[in-house]
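Hey there, shall we discuss this one?
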Amino acid sequence: MRLDVIKNARLYVSISSAVILAGLVAMVISFQQLGSPLRLGIDFTGGSSLTLGLACGAPNTCGKKIDIAVVRQAIESKGFANSVIQSVEGKDLQGVSVRTARLSTEQRDKLLSSMTEALKQYGEVDAKKSQIDEVGPAIGQQALNNGLLALALSFAGIGIYLTFRFQSDYASFALIALLHDVLVTAGIFSILGLTLGVEIDSLFIVALLTICGFSVNDTVVIYDRIRENVKIDAGATKFNDLVNASVNQTLGRSMNTTLTSTLPLIAIFLFGGATLRFFSLALIIGFLSGVYSSIFNASIFLAWWRSRQTPKISQQPLESN
């Protein structure tokens, strides 16, 4: 089956526009209700951090390993949902750490009691290895700012690289495709935040950076084939037809790469536990959006742009840098 991306270009771009628009509307509603475009987790808003360590002389001397699911069930049954729960293991430490929204003294005591009760089956809690910390909103805001700065720097670096690798118009449309992927992922999580109470944490920023790398790789493959075909064709074929041919020549690789990357993420989403569930979901959404934007956005916008240039410009071979 041959895919004609140029013939149905308006349909493909309209689908992207509709998804992004829905996400932007959700972000506006979220900003009005929550004060931010997405529902922020305690990594960004600050909160309380409680760590309980077991009275063990060394790792693996406390009996069986702590089951985080058991601790999570005990905590959530007491009303502490959306907490970040992690196993803590060190040279002479074995325990569990819980990060949650800022707690009152009464709430903190209640959480400590439920954690201690859940850990009884694994060993005795050692007060000397336990601690309680308060994370202020300023630290959370700094973490958010650093994450957004990292995302902006990645966009700038990718843009500079693609400008030297191809040409400025290629780089511009690749960045538009990247922005598409970020907006689609963020928009869907904004909708999930409004409907299901899903919060984003620092792993969400990591997911966005990973999505950018994956998406631009797929776009580069298509652009490389377009450049090669332009050189081989030497102006005998319309640029739109060369784009169609290039997309079809790389379509199998793009689909197979996305499939093999997404299948493990689906397994993590289903069986990886609560900590990694939404991280893997963000990657799944971003990877699928990335292959879509590379095929149906980056190539279409490039074809539209080149078709509006003079025939000489639209069919000139690219110089490899």
Summary: The longest strand covers residues 125-135.
